[in-house]
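subagent[fold] <- orchestrator: predict structure for attached chain, return C-alpha cells only, no commentary.
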Amino acid sequence: MATPHACAALVGVLPTLLRVKRSVVGSSGSQGFAVLDAVRHFRRPRVSEVADHLALDLSTVSRQVAHLRQRGLLAAFPDPQDGRSQRLTVTAAGIDELRCYRRDLVDRLVERLADWDDADVDTLTGLLARLGSVPDGTTASRTTPSPELPRQEPTPDPQRNA
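subagent[fold] -> orchestrator:
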C-alpha cells in the first residue's frame, strides 16, 4: 500500500514530469495529435468520447477536430445509431502525420535517454502505464471504448512502429 510519504515524493516529481513532457512533446499542436491518436485508437468515436478519454473539455476537442478536419487529417460521418451525432475517422493523411509525429517523438526520446538502459526505459514505461490506468472516479478516466466501438487491436501498424 502506498504511504503518504511515498506519494508526497511522487507529488514532488510531477512538475518535473510535466516539464519533461513539454520539452519532448512540445506545447504547440500536441493536443491535436492526442486527438488524432485517440480517434485512431478508438476507431470511429464521437467527439464526446474523445474528449472524455483525453479528460479535455468538449469545446476544446471540438475545435481541435474542426482544425484536423480542415487539414484533411480527420473525416466525420453520421452516426448510424444516432443521425444527430457524428463519428470520426483518421484519414490516410492523418495516419501519415501520426507516423511522422511519433517518429519525431521517438527520436527526441532516444536522444534524451541515450545513457539509459532499455530495461530502465521499460520499467519507467510500465510504471507510468500502471499509474495512468488507476481510475480516478471521473468519467475522464475511462480508457476503454464504448461497446459498439471495438478497440483497434495492436496489429502490424506502421504508424505504431514508426
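orchestrator: received. Logging for downstream: The beta strands are 74-78, 86-90. The radius of gyration is 17 Å.
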